[in-house]
Amino acid sequence: MSAVILPPDSALFTAFADVVHSADLVFFAGLPGVGKSLLLQQLALMAAQRGRRVHLLQWDVARQPFETPRYPLCNGATHPLVIRAVGVWSRSAIAAWEAEFRGKGDMLIGEAPLIGGRFMEIVRRADDAAEALLRSERTRFILPVPSREARAAIEAKREQSIAAPRHENEAQDAPPDLLRSLWHDLNAVAFRLGLVDSAASRPYTPAIYRSVYVHLLSNRVLNVFNIGPILSPTGSVYEGLDGLPNLQATPEEAAGILARLEAERPGDDAAWYEI
Predict the structure, then answer these.
(1) Which of 75, 102, 108, 233 has its CA 20 to 30 A from that of 199?
(2) What is the pTM of this model?
(3) What is the pLDDT of residue 265?
(4) What is the pLDDT of residues 212-228, one digit of tens each?
(5) DSSP per residue, 90-104
């Protein structure tokens, strides 16, 4: 049985209570393996307890209609055109959600990995119907920054959950070796952005991790939380989310966006981390 496990006297509980009261859209940003799924679950449970109907926007669900026989998931990697197409769709989907549920007390909670370009479109400025909403105080981006010890504990728990999943989604989580690989990718990005003075590989470093994501989210309202001791959920972090409405493109929408992007004149695409 899923339950709110954030201590009521903790800063995180207080901050989440404020978010439930004052925000309508919340996106948890960051690499896999920083606690996004658990915090998303906790916020969703708190919102439901306060009478808000929760909707979800999740990368692993959103990408599925775009993964056609021409652009399949290959060895766990998403095709670059699919990454771009999902991002393009996401902005119109957010605007449509807002138009339908404005003033009804509903709440949209999502994950924004950003690494490799996943949902980067929602953090870049654009001249469209979604921009004013995405930069308003009603939309919050939350960045959990685990300590080295917390990150190591998350990796250990990930090994256990993949080996003996308590929910079907846990078997699809990124394994610890991929978590470490993505960190090294982000470390290289920190050097390209001039945030560190060396491209040398180094172990997970909270300050570097934070600086990269603060840069990526500089156009949005951002709340950063340092994560120390690891919370211990009573069950899977995915419990309590089954059955919630999840934003997803129709097959026709996905096919149309892919066709439009295919028809565009190829050019030198900017690096995924450019904002």
Answers:
(1) 75
(2) 0.93
(3) 66
(4) 999 999 999 999 999 98
(5) HHHHHHHHHHHHTTT
Higher pLDDT, 123 or 173: 123
* Number of Cβ within a 10 Å radius of residue 14: 12
How many Å apart are CA 38 and CA 46, to the nearest integer? Answer: 12
Architecture of domain 11-146+220-256: 3-Layer(aba) Sandwich (3.40)
Which long-range contacts (C-beta less than 8 Å, at least 24 apart) are formed by 111-114? 111/27, 111/28, 111/29, 111/36, 111/37, 111/40, 111/57, 111/58, 111/59, 112/27, 112/28, 112/29, 112/141, 113/29, 113/30, 113/31, 113/32, 113/59, 114/29, 114/30, 114/213, 114/216, 114/273
Give CA–CA dist 233/227, Å, rounded: 15
Label each residue of 212-261 as H, E or C: HHHHHCCCCCEEEEEECCCCCCCCCCCCCCCCCCECCCCHHHHHHHHHHH
Residue 219: how many CA atoms within 13 Å on its side-chain side? Answer: 15
Please give the pLDDT value at position 5: 92
Domain-by-domain residue ranges, the chain?
11-146+220-256
